[in-house]
Design brief:
This protein starts with 20 loop residues before the first strand and ends with a helix. The protein contains two helices and two strands. The protein has a two-stranded antiparallel sheet. By secondary structure, the chain is mainly alpha-helical. Helix content is 52%, strand content 11%. The radius of gyration is 27 Å and the shape is elongated. The N terminus is likely disordered.
Amino acid sequence: MTSESVAPKQASLSIADEEEHRYTTGPHSRPCVVVTPEHHNRVVARLEREALRTAIAAGLASCKANPAKAVFDRLETKYRKLHGKRAA
């Protein structure tokens, strides 16, 4: 593999800008793209964030949400009872 820069005949990159790639000639004289480690890390982080957003959206859609006031009132009652048992 040579390290000289060669513009590819047809680039089909959808995950990054061209300035983040270095074009080289592969072992069979075909143009190939070398992705920088920094760009790879950014793409992986973006994909992980998208996966988390999808999982959160699926979780929110999976059940009926309880109003926050009702949840906090229930917790307050629970912990007041626990505190009362300890004091006695």
